[in-house]
Amino acid sequence: DANEVISGIRSLSIRNIALSTDIDYSLFCNLEDLRIGDDTFACLSNLVLSELLFLKHVTIGDNCFNGEMNGKLVFQNLPNLQTISIGMSFTNAKQFTIDCVFFVLF
Question: How many CA atoms lie within 13 A of 88 on its CB side?
Fold first, then answer.
């Protein structure tokens, strides 16, 4: 079953893909590491990562999510998130939200 395969993915690396619709990342319920390479999803405007309880690392390269004005970047209820790295992306975003993200500082 395709849903079982998707839900079992722990590491997802996406490169050089142009899509016209947003991806529903909530389907990747066991995702720990998300990497989006340079020039990927350049025409999209929104990235919403929510309720991914195992997500630890998010890396987004340059020239990603630079689509229409009023885009958004949302990190919500990601209790295991440890690192966020974002290159020169989201240039047209108007909303950046980090909510219910728990960081442990050493």
Answer: 2
Cα 38 versus chain centre, distance: 13
pLDDT at 78: 93
Q: Give the CB-side neighbour count of residue 48, counting CA atoms within 13 A.
A: 12
pTM reported for the whole predicted model: 0.87
Q: What is the pLDDT of residues 35-60, one digit of tens each?
A: 999 999 999 999 999 999 999 999 99
- Find the angle CA(26)-CA(30)-CA(36) to the nearest 5 degrees: 65
Question: What single string gives the DSSP state of each residue in 23-78?
Answer: --GGG-TT--EEEE-TTSSTT--EEEEES-TT--EEEE-SS-S--SSSEEEEEEEE
Give the closest residue to 45 by CA, choosing from 104, 90, 98.
90
Measure the CA–CA gap between 67 and 64, rounded to whole angstroms: 8
